[in-house]
Amino acid sequence: MDPIAAVARSERLILWSRLGHYDVAELERALFERRELFEYWAFILPRSDFPIHREAMRRHARGLAGTPARARFVNEWMAANASFRRHVMGRLRREGPLRSRDIEDRAVVPWPSGGWNEGKNVGRMLEILWDRGEIATVGRDGSERVWDLAERRYPLEEPRLSQREVARRLVEGQLRAKGIARPGELGFGFGGRQPGSERALLGTQTIPLRPLPTSNGILAAMPEEPKEPEVKEPEDSERARFVRFAKKLVNVPKKEIDEKAKEWKRRKA
Fold first, then answer.
1. Residue 74: which of 1, 125, 135 has the closest Cα?
2. 189-216: buried (b, 16+ CB within 10 Å) or exposed (e) per residue?
3. Which of 35, 60, 208, 229 is most buried, most CB within 10 Å of its CB?
């Protein structure tokens, strides 16, 4: 499926919300010429993060991503359409890159959607092969994706990371991006929760926080300031103000938190 673009494609809107105006042509060059970025699902990701997402692709390929029922459904459909898969991979190997419209629908068993994907057998096959890291996007023809074999797009020759290292990088990256989060929110990638995420969180330098009066659970942590290189941050920066707030919150007595909660409820009444 190619994302609907009522205003712009979803991944471009996210970049605009974070960066403001940017050169779309430069983004395309970074994606498809210099290959500093790559697409996966409806996201644009840095090439340096490929080892993390490579493990998500492996989880999809092994039927370990998503719910067991969904994984079984996809695996059964792929098994019934093994010849269709061979046809798609063969066409890409001989003639790729190709668009979905360039590939003949040879599905033995149609995708039983009854909804959005009804009859879109080529698109579903491409999406599943993409999930599993067998193919990748290598360009765009307008808004339509152009596909090729993953071995021609991804740095598959590089050594895989251990599960422990993948979990560490994933958790630390998410903490840096969020700044603050509950433990249960961390460690999720495109293939579900990464094994070892809980252990990785325990080994991450964090500032523990008390539960806020209105929260449903414990707010987890945020990374400490990096030790090297040491960069003095402006005292009025958003992060510096938040760190000062977090450190104060750690030492607030429970009695004071309860009093603040009662006061807040009175104001809301």
1. 125
2. bbbbebbbbeebbeebebeebbeeeeee
3. 60
- Indicate the domain borders of the chain: 10-152, 163-268
> Is 141 buried (19+), middle (13-18) or exposed (0-12) by CB count in 10 A?
exposed
Tell me the average confidence (pLDDT) per consecutive run of 10 residues in the chain, 269 residues long.
Answer: 64 83 90 94 91 93 88 93 97 95 95 77 96 96 93 94 92 82 84 86 63 46 47 55 56 62 66
Residue for token pair 């760190």: 243
Residue 21 and residue 29: Cα distance in Å, rounded?
Answer: 17
pTM: 0.73
DSSP assignment letter at 5: -
DSSP 181: B
Q: Is 45:37 a contact under the CB 8 Å cutoff?
A: yes
Nearest 10 degrees: CA dihedral of 55, 59, 65, 70?
150
